[in-house]
């Protein structure tokens, strides 16, 4: 990944952390005002960006066609369409800006699901997203998909190719995830339907808790 893209991811992470769990009324007001200004200039009204309740942080090559997509669909079904879930392959459309779209999903979500899989730690996107979610103090439900929490150690290749500041952010985020109660799954012996059901129920419970406190 290029240095410019990493810089944009860092900027997105800082914006998400600053926003925190409030992602909120002031941000919504600014978004509405911005949309109004643009409409006035262009002569047309633009639809506001979609709102998301859940953000799924995952490694595309490991989980896109399994737990990530199934969890996305299960949450939609379980909530009767009320809960909107950001999953890159489902939520981003041709022409969308990748980093801006991901940051939008992270900044708004009430709950994030981090799916740690075999190749997760090799992805700069996954690590930046996790760091941004932790820094924004989002509720994170970890799924250890074929890996153990003790395996969440930053690879030396990542340490050697990233700035010390990013390395520290990644390590803090992984340490936070490692000590958060999550769901464990062994692809060789586990029941995927049970995992998806348990994860969806955990997410819905967290959302209900958050909404009840407002």
TrEMBL record:
GO biological process, one term: signal transduction
InterPro entries attached to this UniProt entry: TIR_dom, Toll_tir_struct_dom_sf
Keyword NAD set for record: yes
Region span, Disordered: 9-31
Keywords for this protein: NAD
Matches recorded under SUPFAM superfamilies: Toll/Interleukin receptor TIR domain (SSF52200)
Residue ranges annotated for the TIR domain, each copy included: 50-178
Biased composition (Low complexity): 10-27
Pfam families: TIR_2
Protein known as: TIR domain-containing protein
Organism: Miscanthus lutarioriparius
